Amino acid sequence: xxxFIGLIIATTGFLFAALPASAGFEVCNSTPAAHQLSxxxxxxxxxxxxxxxxxxxxxxxxxxxxxxxxxxxxxRATAKNRSFVGERYMFCTDSKxxxxxxxxxxxxxxxxxxxFSEVEIGSGVTAYKLTLxxxxxxxxxxxxxxxxxxxxxxxGEPFSVSGVFQECGLEEDAYFYCAFHAxxxxxxxxxxxxxxxxxxxxxxxxxAGDLAxxxxxxxxxxxxxxxxxxxxxxxxxxxxxxxNLIAGLQGKWRxxxxxxxxxxxxxxxxxxxxxxxxxEVNYLQxxxxxxxxxxxxxxxxxxxxxxxxxxxxxxxGWDAVSLQLSYVGAxxxxxxxxxxxx
Length: 342
Description:
Elements: E1 3-11, E2 24-29, E3 35-42, E4 47-55, E5 60-65, E6 72-78, E7 82-83, E8 89-93, E9 98-101, E10 112-120, E11 127-135, E12 157-170, E13 176-182, E14 185-190, H1 197-204, E15 211-222, E16 225-236, H2 241-248, E17 251-255, E18 261-266, E19 269-274, E20 277-287, E21 299-303, E22 310-318, E23 322-327, E24 335-341
Parallel strand pairs: 1-7, 2-11, 14-16
Antiparallel strand pairs: 1-11, 2-5, 3-4, 3-6, 4-9, 6-10, 8-10, 12-13, 12-15, 13-14, 15-16, 17-18, 17-24, 18-19, 19-20, 20-21, 21-22, 22-23, 23-24
């Protein structure tokens, strides 16, 4: 039988005053099973994740001592024969005791990348206690497209686009966001920024590379990104050749002429590596043609954030394991052949 872990907040925090000895982040275990705990939080210079603490049944442990000068904490609790239902807050972990700075490139640094759950501490709180309890499994309800909000257009210019989902995560300033790519832009949707909670949960349920229709209000845009409020999201399958491309090319591609050169396509972004070094991140768009392609297509258009130029490649051929691109605009540059690998 699978068990699921829930939580309740056992105490409120202490405000700035005479501080008790237990100031910090404390976890208590009211379940009948021993749990291994890891936590993550925003440090002075970068994100920090650390673990593991073993907390026996009916035991409490202070995991982080001292004043809690952050608004959010993140935790992961594991136990034998039990499932931890995390959220899309991803941090680096290790199988042994660890303290890791940074939450990116976990696998490249020899760590695992796992989901954590969020705890909102609040402002001015120096001590906080979290209690693990057993929760029965919730009945799964069939997902249906969310209905458009009746106040559509009240926060910005109304929009309706088809795009590819990118991610949900935390920005460096600890704001939770979800993002998708559409029409050459990266669309960012922020928790608490006007998007209904139910729609935000539907975004969190999507995977990188999922195709969906999005509608809502466009708030602002700059460079290659958009801030928006989403009021409706509906997942769908590929409906044309360009959507077939973005869905079919998800994964790792290696340059056959230089096997150290790797392109990883995840969602609507391309991550260019040489060896283990990340060289650049590009926003990707597939279109019927581009300027200079003289009608040839489909094409892959790359844009690097902060660079006003775009770079276009004609897709000469592709299938599940091979890809051939020809750069538009450089005579004699030749074609680039990629092979997929795992």
